[in-house]
């Protein structure tokens, strides 16, 4: 059920995904306990659906509960804990709570850099999330630095090819560094399709 809920989320069938994941969460809490790994993953997936639906208050509550429980049960440096941090960063960015989002993305990026290292796609994704919120905050130089890091260290080809369509990066478009980064991203995506 949880896997089906995740597929529905990926396919943007949010109402169906929400129902499926709520049912899954109820069963998982009852059968496996409130802090079982499967329960926590389902909570995070449900929070992602709620975020996509604009139900930010409930999504934030779930994400914070999930993050706290993952830190306690899996540890601060577990890959699943970093996913929860990224989810919280995404939510805070959507709510335009940029300083909080920056802090959260920074924590995820630094943790992934330490644990997963530079070449891991999740580390690149955290750098990208950080770059996007920095661009929204008007911190152009640091945004470019993180964006370049993401492009050079495993950002998925689909994301690299969509840089100029990302509204969060719009403030960077007029800078010549952005065009140079687009060229590099296209070349890298063509050379190393993922």
What layout of secondary structure does this protein have?
Layout: H1 2-10, H2 14-32, H3 37-52, H4 56-73, H5 79-94, H6 98-115, H7 121-136, H8 140-152, H9 157-161, H10 176-191
Mean pLDDT: 94
Q: What is the CATH T-level topology of the largest domain?
A: Serine Threonine Protein Phosphatase 5, Tetratricopeptide repeat
Cα radius of gyration in angstroms: 17 Å
| Secondary-structure-derived class | mainly alpha
H/E element order: HHHHHHHHHH
CATH architectural type of the largest domain: Alpha Horseshoe
Distance between the termini: 28 Å
CATH secondary-structure class of the largest domain: Mainly Alpha
Number of strands: 0
- Structurally, the number of domains stands at 2
Please estimate the helix content: over 70%
- Look at the structure and name the CATH superfamily of the largest domain: Tetratricopeptide repeat domain
Assembly type of the shown chains?
single chain
Q: How large is the share of residues in beta strands?
A: under 5%
Query: What's the total helix number?
Result: 10
General form = globular
Major β-sheet profile: none
């Amino acid at each position: 059920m949880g896997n089906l809920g995740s597929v529905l989320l990926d396919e943007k069938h949010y109402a169906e995904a929400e129902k499926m994941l709520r049912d899954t969460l109820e069963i998982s809490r009852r059968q496996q306990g409130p802090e079982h790994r499967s329960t926590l993953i389902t909570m995070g997936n449900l929070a992602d659906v709620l975020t996509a639906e604009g139900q930010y208050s409930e999504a934030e509550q779930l994400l914070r509960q999930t993050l706290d429980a993952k830190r306690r049960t899996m540890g601060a440096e577990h890959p699943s804990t970093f996913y929860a941090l990224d989810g919280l960063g995404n939510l805070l960015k959507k709510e335009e709570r940029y300083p909080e989002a920056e802090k959260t993305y920074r924590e995820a990026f630094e943790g992934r850099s330490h644990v997963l290292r530079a070449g891991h796609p999740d580390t690149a994704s955290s750098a990208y999330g950080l770059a996007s919120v920095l661009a929204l905050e008007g911190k152009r130089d640091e945004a470019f630095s993180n964006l370049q890091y993401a492009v050079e260290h495993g950002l998925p080809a689909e994301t690299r090819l969509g840089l100029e369509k990302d509204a969060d990066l719009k403030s960077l478009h007029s800078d010549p560094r952005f065009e140079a980064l687009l060229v590099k991203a296209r070349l890298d995506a063509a050379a190393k399709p993922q």
